[in-house]
Amino acid sequence: MTRTSHLLGRLAISLALAATTTTGCGPFGTDQDGPVELSVRASATDRSAMDAVVAQFHRLNPDTRVTVDYSDTGDLQQELPGDLRAGDGPDVFTVWPGNGNPASVTALEHDDLLENLSLRRFNLTMPVGVKPVTDVNGSTFAVPVTFSGIGTVFSTEALDAIGGAPPRTWTELLTLCDKARDHGKVLLALGNATPWVTQLVTYALVATTVYADEPDFDSDMELGKETFANSGWRTALRKYMEMDGRGCFNADPLDTTYEETLDLVATGRAVGVVQVASVLSELRAAAPGLTLRMTALPATDDPDDTRMPGAVSAAYGLNPDTPHRKEALAFIDFLGSAGGQNLYNRSGATLPAIPNASFTVDPAIREVAERQKAGTTVPFMDQRWPNSAVQQTHFAQVEALFSGTTDIGGALAALDEAYRERP
Predict the structure, then answer these.
(1) What is the rounded CA–CA span in Å between residue 181 and residue 187?
(2) DSSP string spanning 90-137?
């Protein structure tokens, strides 16, 4: 695949605008016998959001029929690269920002499995701060769709039932765990049988235990000045295990799946769950009567220390070998438009990755929006890691901690070893 330089790509954008597809343009495929079949593969956690986008896109483009295959995050990350290499990949697909897993922007672009999107219209309004996780060598290879947080999603009804409130300090968090248990509930549903779930509590804690004092931690790691073992990662893993020992989670997290955690919250057996913001749409679908609120997970007794992981979450790439290039680009352009961004995020209870003045923030994620504006969010940790092995190691080490087959020192040593690997 030909890589367009950053400078030439920027100079050519204005020339390409006339050729790009806009939201209001007419249907495609009019020279074909029937509708063009466009295939999309997306994460199951984004089902509600993508369904809304597909429905509107079809109304605008009735001669393009979009079929979406929804997959578990872990399956998608493992299967997508091989499918693309074998020529069996979808036309458009979820791609993870940065470089944290095998289906990330950097990893897929390295193998020439992503179309260069530098000339698309959405690049004109995409925030500069977003580009480090969508670009490789100065060219854009993904359209970012959502800005999401990782935090605790509480059912306000369940909080009221135990006489509690969202905790602002670590001590308040542990006390709330006790209060939930006294009322026959668990505070937080935890589904570590689903590998990607294992990372979320660590990330939510590390945002504070590492980045509150070391905002340049990622750069220091790249320079070899820092390690997992000698940083606030140790504190975060210790607190993770302390929460488990305190009874903050359901019994047997390693035998509980992501789907089962949603059921625990939907039925009131759990007060909340540590998750990405997109889980709100899934919980609302399961229990329409719930009132939900997302807050940062505290890790110290000073609320001013608290940070929340917040970054581009959902993004989409284009298969460079798609036989439906025109229609696929139209879908990419719709995802990057204000209308597409608003629809996706309105349905998914997240924030547009490309902000626009017409978006109304969901009350459930008001804290995420406030922290985004105040600068008290930090990137998702895996987006800055040098290879996908670190994330996979993190999954495995959290599982080993919960099964008792390693200790915190061993888990951190394994993470440091994985970080030193180079792709």
Answers:
(1) 7
(2) -SEEE-BSTTSSTTBHHHHHHTT-S---TTSGGGGTS-GGGGGGTEET
pLDDT in tens, 374-417: 889 998 999 889 888 999 999 999 999 999 999 999 999 999 99
Cα distance between residue 169 and residue 377, in whole Å: 17
pTM: 0.77
Q: Which two tokens stand for residue 416?
A: 């440091």
Both structure tokens of 30: 């009019």
* Surface-to-core class of residue 56, CB atoms within 10 Å of its CB (0-12 exposed, 13-18 middle, 19+ buried): middle
Contact 160, 388 (CB under 8 A): no
Q: How far is CA 406 from the centre of its chain?
A: 28
Count of positions (residues) in the chain: 423
Is 233 in contact with 199 (CB distance < 8 Å)? no
* Count of H-run helices and E-run strands, the chain: 16, 14
* Residue written as token pair 């509590």: 201
- Inter-residue contact 154 to 364 (CB < 8 Å): no
Report yes or no: 129 and 356 within 8 Å, Cβ to Cβ. Answer: no
DSSP string, 343-356: HHHHHHT-EESS--
Planar angle of CA 193, 311, 5, nearest 5 degrees: 115
Please say whether the beta carbons of 115 and 318 come within 8 A.
Answer: yes
Could you read off the pLDDT of 83-105 as tens digits, one per residue?
A: 999 999 999 999 999 987 899 99
